[in-house]
Specification:
Elements: H1 8-39, H2 43-69, H3 74-91, H4 98-126, H5 130-158, H6 164-183, H7 199-212, H8 214-244, H9 249-276, H10 279-304, H11 309-327, H12 330-336, H13 343-395, E1 403-407, H14 416-420, E2 425-429
Antiparallel strand pairs: 1-2
Length: 443
């Protein structure tokens, strides 16, 4: 996996991702402490609202940001987003009202909604070989998991010598470091065709390509399965550990680390696995396993009460492994389903639609917890996950060839596409574009 870091351009971009993630992790800890200073025992409500604002920004703004940014150089988009995020982090220690937290978080997440899809869309252009790109996806997943484990520990060490406001300085340095690394990296230029499209076309193009592609409709259903289990773990682990077991904050961290450890194990194993097995089989098996594990743990909670501590940790590790096995290969599907000029729009669509799943499952995990208890909530979310698996099986056909036989009754006989491919009926690698606006249903 780590051999891909020999590619100098990718190595610099990966370093930019890592330092930005460290800064984000420090901000997460500092933001919780800031919320407590401002709201006291209402800090949880403040953070919950901030999380909802984050999801709304991701879902609503990422396609808009991608459409606006398509006429700008990639490097300018990435650096500009990092500088905006750094400015917000610099302002956070000086605020004195909860509404200011909400406003700044919205601006920060709007910048992230610009940065993340644009960053993700660059990687397949600099790593055109699928084998290298697969390893880059696993390395990115590993970076996210390590950040979730190591950033709280780093924040704890820093808080021994500085106040929590100082953690925001670390966030600023992380985003500035990311901007400097991007500035020193030669990025491939954008394809020029998109600049001729109108704003409305650019705004909706990614979602239209996404929803017209069967494998991506299946991916959306699998995103729902992953979000159902992930939301339960993220929202309710603290409740299960503190109220259910009567344990402390250290044990909460251990339980979350078990989930992250399972995710890292999948990230390490997937490159070799995907060299020999198709994405559809791996992702559907992982999703079915995740839904089954969720339902099994729910049944055990409802039947016997709190699970033995070791069983809970093993269950969380298994859920993390399956969760990562669903999400890590998704970039391969997006790359396979688009031309290079459409990738930024398609990655933005994936960013928005996948976070729409979280926008549903986050509040469901929280509200159902108070009404149904932990076992009942996991049963509901496990059912949602199982529904995602069933939908994916129906939406993503088996086989899923890249080359598809089709014809073009709508194109004139002298159209360049027909001349290039030998006639009105032909076969080639099929993606949704201007000449192929819907997926062939037969042939």
């Amino acid at each position: 996996m780590f051999a891909v870091l020999a590619h100098r351009v990718y190595a610099r971009l990966f370093a930019a991702q890592v330092v930005a993630l460290v800064g984000t992790g420090l901000m997460t800890v500092a933001l919780g402490l800031l919320a407590y200073d401002l709201a006291g025992d209402r800090a949880g409500a403040v953070l919950g609202t901030a999380l909802a604002i984050k999801m709304v920004a991701y879902v609503g703004l990422s396609p808009v940001a991608a459409a606006l940014a398509e006429r700008l150089p990639r490097k300018a988009v990435l650096i500009g987003a990092d500088l905006i995020r750094a400015a917000v982090a610099l302002a956070l220690p000086f605020i004195d009202a909860v509404w200011q937290v909400y406003a700044l978080i919205f601006v920060l997440q709007a910048a992230s909604a610009s940065f993340t899809p644009a960053f993700q869309a660059v990687i397949p252009d600099i790593l055109p070989e699928e084998r290298d790109y697969t390893r880059a996806l696993s390395l990115s997943r590993l970076a996210y998991d390590l950040e979730s484990l190591l950033s709280p520990a780093l924040a704890g060490v820093l808080l021994l010598v500085i106040s929590y406001q100082g953690l925001f300085a670390g966030t600023v340095l992380g985003f500035l470091g990311s901007a400097l690394l991007v500035a020193g990296t030669a990025l491939p230029a954008r394809a020029g065709a998109e600049a001729r499209r109108g704003f409305g076309d650019r705004l909706t193009r990614g979602v239209r390509i996404y929803l017209a592609t069967p494998r991506l409709r299946g991916l959306l259903a699998l995103n729902l399965t992953a979000a159902a289990a992930g939301a339960f773990v993220i929202v309710n682990t603290v409740v299960i550990v503190r109220a259910g077991y009567g344990l402390g904050e250290a044990e909460v961290a251990v339980a979350l680390a078990a989930f992250g450890g399972g995710s890292m194990l999948a990230a390490l194993a997937l490159p070799r696995l995907l060299d020999t097995l198709p994405d559809r089989g791996v992702m559907l098996a992982a999703a079915a396993g995740l839904a089954a594990l969720s339902l099994g743990l729910a049944a055990a909670m409802l039947g016997t009460g709190p699970l033995p501590w070791a069983v809970l940790l093993a269950g969380w590790a298994g859920m993390g492994l399956a969760y990562s096995a669903i999400l890590t290969p998704s970039g391969r599907l997006l790359r396979r389903s688009s031309h290079a000029e459409d990738r930024p729009a398609l990655f933005a669509a994936q960013f928005a639609l996948s976070h729409a799943c979280w926008l549903v499952t986050y509040p469901l995990a929280g509200w159902a917890g108070g009404l149904l208890g932990m076992g009942g909530t996991l049963l509901v979310l496990g059912g949602v996950g199982a529904g995602g698996v069933v939908a994916a099986l129906r939406l993503w056909p088996a086989g899923d060839p890249q080359e598809v036989a089709h014809d073009h009754p709508d194109l004139p006989g002298d159209h360049p596409h027909l001349r290039d491919h030998g006639g009105r009926r032909h076969r080639h690698v099929f993606v949704i574009d201007d000449e192929h606006r819907s997926w062939p249903t037969h042939g």
